[in-house]
Write the structure tokens for this entry.
Amino acid sequence: MPARAADLIGALLASLLAVLTLAQVHAADTGVSVVDDDGTRITLAAPAQRIISLAPSTTELLFSLGAGEQLVGVMDYSDYPPEALTLPVVGRYDALDMERIVALQPDLIVAWRSGNPRGALNRLASLGFPVYVAEPDSLSSIGEHLERLGQLTGHPSRGSALKRQFSQQIQQLQMEFGNRQPVSVFYQVWHSPMISVGGHELINDMIQLCGGQNIFAELPVGPKVNLEDVLARNPQVIIASGSSSDAPAWLGDWQRWPQVQAVAGQHLYVIPPDLVQRHSLRALQGARQMCAHIDRARR
């Protein structure tokens, strides 16, 4: 082979190798990787385009990020924003429609550790579907999930900006109310059985943010409590959230115990449950209402 031809072939091979290397670097650059709340690293070759959300709160977060059009399935009760109501429902709190999920061929499933059947999540992972498991338990965790989900869905700048804005507004509430006179608070989730909130829940985080003291902070998540304990702890404020934004009828039952500080001072309040029980950006609205209610007991 003439030397000139050999040189030409060598140059062509070198150019081809350079192109392949650049392509590999570009492919690596477009991939995304985050660690979920189970400690599992979720790696995608490219941002997800067919997403299934298995919790109303994560559905809200995904819409907040601008990833609503990438959703192909949601969980029952995913009712905010209104656009979520048009999406296929793939399960409820105690059961997932596995056939429908598989048929939708998602490239990312966003799950809720304590709200989804663990066996079903393991099965989906074994079938090769990327399953990002979330277990938000505080206000700060909302921002963390916005940032991670922003990366997985191709909206990293939006996720980082939302996390920063959310954190700043929470810090403002902390500065305004966190160091004021402590106020004892009983938060009633339900009446029969009587259910409150423990120390490792979003609502407890809000109470502390506002300078309040949850009277059942030492208990685990979703504790059942009894009337005698509430009366003995004598809260200064009672806040309830029923099944809708309206005040539950059972909140008025506390008027039968006028010796309770909250009743004597007429500090019986209600906050719409979706504002305090969902780990979404709307939790900021719930926190503001919480702080306003608690602060009235200081006057």
Remarks:
- Residues 8-13, 15-28 have pLDDT under 50 and may be disordered.
- The chain has two domains: 32-164, 178-296.
- The first strand starts at residue 32 and ends at 35.
- The radius of gyration is 25 Å.
